[in-house]
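Work Package 4 report. The design task specified in the project plan requires that, given a folded chain encoded as structure tokens, an amino acid be chosen for each position. We show below one input record used in the internal validation round.
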């Protein structure tokens, strides 16, 4: 080699040294070895990736703190919702992921750091897929109780949940194997297993859409069994929106895994912009949305549910209060108020009993007659309105009375008050204007 050629070669190497690249690493004698192909997001850099990743690190820390505090406050009130803890776990995994990516930017030639960063990057989001699978199961049980509680459906969702930790260990194992071998045959086999892992992860991301859309289109012979607070259609919309975001991210990762590209010829889908917008950004949107819409209230179901009807009978705010098939927005509103009032109370009531004990004690009391209730309300001296006709409830019936109270800040009951609306759109005014027979009151 001439001196001019040697100088040119050395100059080219110096010029290339400004951009970190795994392909420039010296070939080690033992693993972990540098990957021969490009991966989504490429090698992080100090100037571009570190500031962006640091922002997501802070956001995931905020998300973790929010869901952890929510879980702890609910636990003190006796409101069990462990799915908030799972979202917290996911946020903590993502804080480790972003931290490892920042470390990778400062040490791009350390293949051990590269391996650790890729493991945490591919293992985290599956936890949220498990959360969405549980939400899907509850919605299907509400839409089709007999099918949703059948042994076949229970076994299916149990297998889905069991597969989540399995697929995490599966991907970690074969990713590690691919970093510790240089044999083409083993690398080809390992790539096939990793493609299956990506495809299965993609299926988990879209599973809620594949199940909820047909369940909503198929008519049910049983009335809708609502759970938690809020409108049922809002629950479906929240879950479908989150599933669409996860579907977009999983689809990009699947395409990136299928379209294997060498380091010397990168493809656009592996760019940093695609990596951040379809990965960390979509995930933090779902984490923030789950905190803002209060999934701990909307998707809560009572403990001990084992079959059709338990969403209603196990929940004191719903059991025995409505006839079959009676579902209105007003009923949902009062259920929301009841649950939120119970959430705001301390764990122990002033009577010295917890809420379940008080309810059990109340259920053993004697049911009064209509005349007894009417006389008791008359003795109170309060102004009341009857809301609707009596509701049949088996051997008993439910009478609903509404009490008129003064607004806060109004000292005299004789002050003028706003006249009722004449549109008739208010269910309370409409019901109170009905002329009820004396024997029904």
């Amino acid at each position: 080699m001439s001196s001019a050629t040697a100088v040119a070669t050395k100059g080219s190497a110096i010029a290339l040294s400004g951009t970190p690249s795994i392909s420039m690493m010296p070939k080690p004698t033992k693993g972990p070895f540098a990957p021969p192909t490009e991966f989504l997001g490429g090698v992080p850099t100090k100037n571009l990736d570190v500031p962006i990743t640091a922002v997501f690190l802070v956001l995931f820390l905020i998300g973790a703190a929010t869901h952890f505090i929510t879980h702890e406050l609910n636990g003190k009130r006796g409101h069990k919702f462990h799915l908030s803890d799972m979202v917290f776990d996911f946020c903590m995994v993502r804080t480790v992921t972003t931290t490892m990516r920042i470390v990778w930017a400062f040490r791009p030639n350390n293949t051990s750091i590269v391996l650790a960063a890729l493991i945490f990057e591919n293992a985290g989001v599956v936890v949220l897929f498990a959360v969405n699978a549980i939400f899907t199961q509850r919605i299907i049980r509400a839409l089709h109780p007999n099918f949703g509680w059948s042994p076949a459906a229970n076994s299916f969702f149990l297998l889905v949940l069991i597969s989540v930790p399995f697929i995490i260990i599966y991907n970690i194992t074969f990713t590690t194997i691919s970093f510790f071998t240089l044999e083409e045959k083993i690398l080809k086999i390992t790539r096939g297993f990793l493609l299956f892992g990506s495809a299965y992860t993609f299926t988990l991301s879209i599973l809620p859409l594949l199940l909820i859309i047909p369940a909503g289109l198929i008519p049910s012979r049983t009335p809708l069994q609502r759970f938690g607070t809020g409108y049922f259609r809002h629950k479906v919309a929240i879950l479908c929106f989150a599933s669409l975001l996860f579907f977009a991210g999983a689809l990009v990762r699947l395409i990136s895994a299928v379209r294997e590209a060498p380091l010397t010829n990168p493809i656009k889908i592996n760019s940093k912009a695609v990596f951040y917008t379809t990965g960390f950004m979509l995930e933090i949107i779902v984490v923030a949305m789950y905190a803002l819409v209060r999934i701990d209230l909307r998707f809560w179901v009572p403990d001990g549910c084992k079959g059709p009807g338990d969403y209603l009978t196990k929940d004191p705010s719903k059991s025995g209060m409505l006839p079959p098939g009676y579902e209105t927005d007003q009923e949902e509103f009062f259920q929301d108020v009841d649950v939120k009032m119970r959430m705001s109370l301390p764990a122990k009531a002033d009577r010295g009993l917890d809420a379940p004990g008080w309810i059990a004690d109340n259920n053993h009391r004697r049911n009064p007659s209509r005349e007894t209730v009417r006389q008791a309300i008359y003795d109170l001296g309060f102004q009341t309105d009857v809301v609707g006709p009596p509701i049949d409830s088996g051997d008993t019936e439910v009478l609903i009375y509404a009490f008129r109270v003064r607004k806060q800040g109004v000292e005299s009951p004789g002050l003028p008050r706003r006249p009722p609306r004449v549109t008739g759109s208010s269910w309370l005014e409409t019901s109170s204007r009905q002329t009820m027979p004396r024997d029904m009151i």
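Residues 278 and 409 are 52 Å apart (CA to CA). Validation will be extended to a larger panel in the next phase.
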